[in-house]
Structures are given as structure tokens and as C-alpha cells.
Write a structure and sequence with these properties.
Porin; signal; mainly beta; 432 residues; single chain
């Protein structure tokens, strides 16, 4: 009860503070440096403390859902990146990244805690151009926002969904246990990743390390790149999972002008539909499937960034997926390896569209110390829209954010019907 009263007071304080701050007069103007065309990350994450060894953020949020109960949340986010031997040696480095989310439902009468150990690894510099990492590492390949076909190791690793923003989902996911070797030359680079199987099924336990989500199979990933010109550095990938066919990928980005970046990502290989992996293997439809993402971004002198993307996922087909799972028996799904405790993760495979398009407008300092981020994604297969909008106010170490989001959720326990989920969320974050 004491924890619930504390969460209630903290959430109420967050809401009152947010309303007051969002309508307050703007603070002093920040710097006017324009956004770089290659800076495609979410600039709201630890934006003022990137130079610190230890970054800690505490957040209180309240969400109003149009179709279900309201949710209050208290979170603690930590990242520690430090030389292991201090001034004695810069060859060893330790990285730890962890997040705790505590949610309260039904008037704070019920709560659920989820801990996500996102990263925990050691880095050793063998030579000035050779690095080796060992531990849990969150890797990312491809710069597209809505869909990365070559991001082979990141699928299904989000334990706690706090936002519909794709960049936030990618930041908060679990890394994979691996050994990673990186070799650099003047114009080329080579990365080799070995990621072993540590568990067979994902876990919904609050404090679980969830190796079943991050390391469900033995995996090998090889990545090579060569710089043909200053603005042309293609990346080739080879990915192999145990008992699966190899997959190959290509990432290509080209700076067209000082403010414009174009990019293309492609992956291909023999595989079943993603949603079929929860069915018995005898029901898989294995064939060569192409996946691609292409986009262009433009950044103006006023710090406005516009993005247009198109996506094609040959391993997805939400029309067929919904038809198959609406008639599948619970026994058949469990025999295929599905866990009903992890139905939210399986639902993502069911709802993945074959074709989609995304438009984003991100305006940093639209008014002094205010950031605006709007994302609209269109499912071209089912003709449905998804949306995310955020207004963020910076006040020194405090961020206040008002969000609106529309996604689609599936009742994976009973009817398998997809329904729109619209919600408002207001949050207050403090960066230590």
C-alpha cells in the first residue's frame, strides 16, 4: 500500500507539473546548430548528459486509454559506460544498461514490475584497430526508422513497451549475449558476432534476464563494409541461425546534399512467414522472401527534419496470419512452441504488414526548448493508419512530454480480433 500511495503521489505530481510546464512561457533559447543529416537517433534520450559516465533518468507517467483502463507508470533508467581501470588503462571498458518499469492498474489496486537488463558487456582493445566485446550487447544495423530488414538480432526483444515511437522501442530492447570481434582498416571494416542459444522460450517473469527472447537459437552474423567514397560506404551482412536457412543483407546510404540523405536496406533468404514460427514446423511455408526499406530525410537550417520511408516485408502477411490464427487450436499453437504468456510478442508478428509507408516530421526547438515529433505509418495491406505525436519541453534536467498514439492491439487470448488502441500519455522525466 505504501508503494501504491507513493506511485499515486508521484504520478499526480507528474501530471500537475506537466500541465503547468507545457503552457508556461518558453525558457532561454538554446543553441541554433542545425541537425546533421546522418543523426537519425531520437535526440530526446539523455540529450543533455551524453558526456557523463553514469546516466540516470527517473520518470513518472500517466496514460489515458480510450478503449481500456488507465495506467500509471514509474520508471528508472540507468546506463553506465566507463573505462574499467580508470586512468591506468583505456583498453578495457565496461557498459551496463538497465531499466525498471513499474505499472499500476485499476486505480493502483494492481501493479506489475518489469526489469530489462538491456546491456552488460566488456570491451577490450586488442590493437588500435581491433576490438572485442563479450556480454549482452544491443546491436543495430540500418538507419531506417519504421522497419529495418537487416536488423537480424533485434526481433522480439522488447520486454516493456512504453511508447509507440520506433526509436524508443529500439533503444529499450534487450541486447543479445554474444562475442563480437571488430576489425577496422583505412577504408574497410569487418565485424563477426557469435551469439549462442541460452533458452528456448521468452519469459514474462518480472526479474528475468529473458535469454529466451534475446538468445533463442545459435546465431552467427558477419558484417563487412568498404568506403568507395566519402559518402558511399555500403555494408554487406551474412546471417545464419541454427536450423534455419542463411540470410543475406545490404545497407546503403548516400548523402545527396548538405541536408539530404537517401538510404536503402535489403535482406533476403529462404524462411517461413514470421507468424508461422508459432505453429508446428510441418505447417511452415518456406520460400525465398525479400524484405526492403527505402527512405529519404531532409534537414533544414531551422532544425526541422522530414522523413519519408517505404517498407516491404515478404515474410509478413497479416491478412493470412489473422485467418490462420483465428481458426488454430490452442493445443496446436502450444505444440508449435507458442507461449500464451508471451502473446503480446506473438501479436506483433500477426499484425506486421507486407507493405507500409511512414512519414515523420521532427522539429527540434520548434519554439525555444520545445521539441515536436510526429510519425504517421500506413499499413498498405489492411489500409490502416498508426500514429504517434509528442510535444516535449526541456527545463534543465527535467523533460515534460505530452504524447498521443494510435496503434492496433490484438486479443491474443480469445478472439484474435485486432482493435485500435488510442491513448494519451503525459510524463515527467528527471535526468541526474
Amino acid at each position: 500500500m505504501a508503494a501504491q500511495r507513493f506511485a499515486f503521489r508521484l504520478t499526480r505530481l507528474a501530471c500537475l507539473t506537466a500541465v503547468a510546464v507545457l503552457y508556461a512561457a518558453p525558457a532561454l533559447s538554446g543553441t541554433d546548430a542545425s541537425l546533421d543529416a546522418l543523426d537519425l537517433a531520437d535526440n530526446t534520450e539523455f540529450s543533455d548528459v551524453k558526456d557523463k559516465t553514469l546516466n540516470v533518468m527517473a520518470e513518472a507517467a500517466s496514460a489515458i486509454n480510450e478503449n481500456s483502463g488507465n495506467v500509471q507508470r514509474v520508471s528508472l533508467d540507468m546506463r553506465w559506460d566507463t573505462p574499467l581501470m580508470g586512468r591506468l588503462s583505456q583498453d578495457w571498458r565496461l557498459v551496463l544498461s538497465n531499466r525498471i518499469d513499474s505499472r499500476f492498474y485499476r486505480g493502483l489496486s494492481r501493479n506489475r514490475n518489469v526489469n530489462s537488463l538491456r546491456e552488460a558487456y566488456l570491451t577490450y582493445r586488442l590493437t588500435p584497430r581491433t576490438l572485442i566485446d563479450a556480454g549482452r550487447v544491443n546491436t543495430r544495423y540500418g538507419v531506417a526508422l519504421g522497419y529495418n530488414p537487416t536488423d537480424f538480432l533485434g526481433r522480439g526483444t522488447v520486454r516493456s513497451v512504453i511508447s509507440a515511437d520506433p526509436e524508443t522501442l529500439r533503444t529499450n530492447r534487450l541486447g543479445n549475449a554474444m562475442v563480437r570481434l571488430q576489425q577496422f582498416w583505412d577504408k574497410a571494416a569487418l565485424t563477426a558476432i557469435v551469439s549462442p542459444k541460452l533458452a528456448g522460450q521468452p519469459s514474462d517473469d518480472s526479474a528475468s534476464l529473458d535469454w529466451g527472447a534475446s538468445n533463442p537459437r545459435d546465431r552467427l552474423l558477419l558484417v563487412g563494409s568498404y568506403r568507395f567514397a566519402e559518402n558511399l560506404n555500403p555494408q554487406l551482412l551474412y546471417f545464419q541461425e541454427s536450423h534455419r536457412s542463411p540470410q543475406i543483407g545490404l545497407n546503403l546510404a548516400r548523402v545527396l546534399s548538405r541536408s539530404t540523405l537517401a538510404y536503402l536496406e535489403w535482406a533476403g533468404g529462404r524462411q517461413p512467414f514470421a507468424w508461422q514460427t508459432s505453429l508446428p514446423e510441418s505447417q511452415w511455408d518456406v520460400a525465398w522472401r525479400n524484405r526492403a526499406s527505402a527512405g529519404i530525410t531532409w534537414t533544414g537550417e531551422n532544425r526541422l527534419t522530414l522523413r519519408l520511408e517505404g517498407h516491404y516485408d515478404g515474410s509478413a502477411d497479416n491478412e493470412r496470419a489473422m485467418s490462420a490464427f483465428s481458426t488454430a487450436s490452442r493445443y496446436g499453437l502450444v505444440q508449435g512452441g507458442a507461449s500464451y504468456g508471451n502473446s503480446a510478442r506473438q501479436a506483433l508478428d500477426l499484425m506486421s504488414p507486407r507493405r507500409s509507408a511512414l512519414v515523420q516530421a521532427y522539429w527540434k526547438d520548434v519554439v525555444d526548448q520545445y521539441d515536436l515529433n510526429i510519425i504517421v505509418q500506413r499499413d498498405l495491406q489492411r489500409q490502416k493508419n498508426l500514429g504517434f505525436a509528442e510535444l516535449r519541453r526541456h527545463i534543465g534536467p527535467v523533460d515534460v512530454a505530452l504524447q498521443w498514439q494510435k496503434i492496433y492491439r490484438m486479443d491474443a487470448e480469445t478472439t484474435y480480433q485486432i482493435r485500435p488502441d488510442r491513448r494519451w500519455q503525459i510524463s515527467v522525466s528527471y535526468y541526474f
